[in-house]
Each structure stands twice: as structure tokens, then as C-alpha cells.
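Regression test attached.
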Amino acid sequence: MNDLTWIDAAVRSARPQAIGALVRYFRDLDRAEEAFQEACLRALKNWPVNGPPRDPAAWLILVGRNAGLDETRRSSKSEPLPADDKISDLGDAETDLAERLDNSHYRDDVLRLLFICCHPDLPAVQQIALALRIVSGLSVKEIARAFLVSESAMEQRITRAKSRVARSDVPFETPGAAERTERLAVVAAMLYLLFNEGYSASGGEQHVRTPLCDEAIRLSRLLLGLFAGEPEIMGLTALLLLQHARTPARLDADGAIILLEDQDRALWNRDMIAEGEALLDKARRHRRPGAYQMQAAIAAVHARAPRPEDTDWLEIDRLYASLEQLMPSPVVTLNRAVAVSKTQGAEAALAMIEPLAEPLGGYFHFFGLKGGLLMQLGRDEEAREAFDRAIALAHTPAEAAHIRLHLDRLMRDSQPPSKSLTSVSE
Amino acid sequence: MLYAFLCCHDEAIVNSWSKDEDDAVLAKRALVTDKLAAKGKLGPAVRLMPTTAATTVRMGREPVVLDGPFAETKEAFLGFYLIDCDSLEEAVDLAKQIGRDEKVVFEIRPVRLYLPKGKAS
């Protein structure tokens, strides 16, 4: 790894903490970003000559803050200037700053920065785009590519989102415990959205966008490193890892969806599964169950089964039942119905999802599952109807193509297939 | 003498590597460690999960169980090699070879007791 690659990695990994601290100093997103940019330019010149600093984040914060102050000095002569010796003696100040950074401040800096991106007025996609731009430092071009929109459209979206959050007033004081917990929950939800945007794209040609998943995992790990004792952040990180572990097996060479039960489990990433299980174990010790922990536990049951027929569907049913209690939602019930179809048969599952027709009337997976269950029961005509609806609601060509496979099969033989052909999860 | 090479690395950076970058580092290291293994000088090598997976048990009057690593530092202990070296000089030289082009830190510690199966004999 040469110097430039290393500097690139160091700057990238220091970014959330550095921008978070600079936002606290300047109380302004744009100024913080400009100051960070300037610090990065100086790092590129300075580090190859003087060697890398022990703490790149502390270095970037200090240099960025000085650069920002210089800028202030230039633009408004009237403002009182900080004494030079306080800001320019980098050597000593770095140690000093590094020490101060080790205390709790920067945890809340990073959390605040993520939280600012989650402004409730912003649609989910804009929250994610903003976080990718500001916290992760992806270029507008990269984000535009991930969302499959033009660069100028994404530029516009991010600018609009930024001006919206600039008018928000997230307090800069250290948050209290309750406030912190609330911020963590909001940020966790955004990271999960970011992951899902990559895992099952909401639109466009591509069904899986791995870089978004990788970034969600990186940010989730970062958050867990800062808030090490939070079982739901352990659960979230475990959930992302356990789901992402399946990515290499989820699509075939032509980009068609392969269902969980048809996936080549040898392709699952064992490292990610092991880490997910380890985090889940840690979370259980706290005896504070939560939605992410439960969903991670469900993913872990799948990960543990060497073959699909080894899946402990009773355990999955039980976990979904707990999740339903904790977080009642038609989507959760729909997922539970998949487990019920395995343990009690298609008839019972169909009865279970019947009341969901109303709330999930526009949901691709509802009609996919419904069609599959009807097909198992040999009710081909109704199955075909459900599949037609599903295709109309598909978000990606891969989703539509997958349902078309079922339809083709229905056309080919009128006999009900021996095994179920669809499930909500992949 | 058997030496432990404790690999300490800035974890935020290691976590931000893409799979390709990670693979490249391991492949580069294998150029050195495979040779050592062929000579029968390489003992077990371990790569640890991220420190977010760590739990710390601090014994006192009451044992305290804490989430996270023992020390929250930039450079975390991420794994180790055990290598049979003729001298400290050789150990230092090997560390330089294994870590070539990386910003990794190796702490080299002579091994006092080595029980590959966990018990003597």
C-alpha cells in the first residue's frame, strides 16, 4: 500500500469524526466541509514529507479548524482573533488535542453529524444521500451512480437537503442520556435504510448495490465502536452482517434473483456470519431485546442451517411472533407467514395473510407470497392473478423476472409443485 | 526462540478497506509467511474480529463485564503470528518484511510458554 492509498484510507476513516468536530466548532455544515477539504489538501502535502501523524483525525481537526479560522480572519477583520500560539503550534497541540478527543466529546460529534442528516422533513432517500455525501464523503458522482440518477439531479437533491438541514437547529451541547438514545434510534433506522437501499434497490436496473451495503456496515461498526454498550446497535450491525453475508449467492450470472432456499450456501461469507453471531451473543447478555436483535436472530437461524431443509422454522416463527408484539407491522406478519407455511402448511399461511390485503395492497412481496401459496394449493388461476399484480408492483427487473418464472411454470404444468416456490426473504 | 508478533493497526482504516484491498494485504503478507511455513518456522497465526466484537472482563472484588476492547486506542490489537526466530534481529527483520508497505505496528514479544493444545506434554 503506497503513501497515497494510505492517506486516502486514513482521510476516509477519519472523516466522520473530523467533520463532526468541525461542525461543533463552526456550527455550520458548509464551513466544516470546506475546512476539512483544506485540511485534506494540506495532509496530502505534509504527510508524505513529515510522515503520517499518530492520530490522523486529530491532525485533520486541528488543521481544519486553523484553516477555518484563517478564512474567518480574511473575511471579517472585525472579529477578535484567537491568539496565534493557541492555534499554530501543531506539534504540541496534536498531543493535547488527541487527549481531549479521547474523552466523550467525539462520540457525540459523530452521532450529531449522522443525526443532522436524518432531518424528519427529508425523505428517506435524501437522508441517505446526505449522509453518504457528508459523513462518508462519497462524491456526488458516486452517489448519483448508486441511485442511478444523473449527477446534476443528485447535486440538486443534496444541495436542497443541505439547505434544509442548515435551517434545522440540532443543539450542539452534549446531549443527555434520553436525547442520545433517541438520536441513536433515528440514526440506526437511517443506516438500515441505507443498507436496504443497497440490498434491494428501490428502483433502477441493478438489484444489489454492494457499496451501499458496505458503507452501511462501516458506519454501523463505527457507531458501535463509539457506543459499545448498546445492544440494539450490536443487533443492527449483526443484522447487516448476517444479511450481507448472503450477497454472493443472491443473484445468478444473469442477475436473476435466487431465493434463500435455492442459494448455494457455500458462497455465503462465513466471516461475516461469525461476526454477526458474535455480536448477537454480546447483545443477548444485556437482556434488552429489540427489533434489530430479533431480526438479526432470524437471519442467524437461516445462516446456521447447512441446508434449507435444516432450517428451524419453529424458531423463526417464534422470533417473528416476538417481533410482531414488539413492533406490530403487516410486513412482519407477512414474513411470519412464510415460517407458518413451512410449519403448518400453505392453507394456514394464506389465512394469516388474508387480512393484510388492505395494508399491503401495493406491496410486491405480498402478491409474490400470496401467488406462491395459492400455487402450492393448486389454485392456479388465483395464483396467476396474484403474480400479475406482483409484476406490476416490482421495483427492479430482477423482481419482475423472478415472478415471471413462476408464471411460466404455471403455464407449463398445471400440477402444483412439491416445494414452495416463493418466500419473502432472499 | 519463539516470538509472538502482535499486529496493531488503526482499526478504522482496516475496517474501511474494501474486500480487494484486504485480500491484497493478506496476499502480500503470505509471500513472506508461506516461506516461513515451508521452513516449519511459522506457528499458529490468528486474526481477531473487530474490537466491536470484543468483551472485557475486569476482575476485582466484583468482576465487571464491559463491552468493547481492553483499551480504546487508535491502534488496536488485531491479530498475531507465532514465529520461530534465531534472534531478535531476525524477528525484527521478518516484521519489516511482513509489514512491508503497510502502516501496521508489530509488537514483538518472546514467548515464555507455548502450549499448542492448551496443556503441557
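Expected vs. actual: identical. Chain B has a mean pLDDT of 91.
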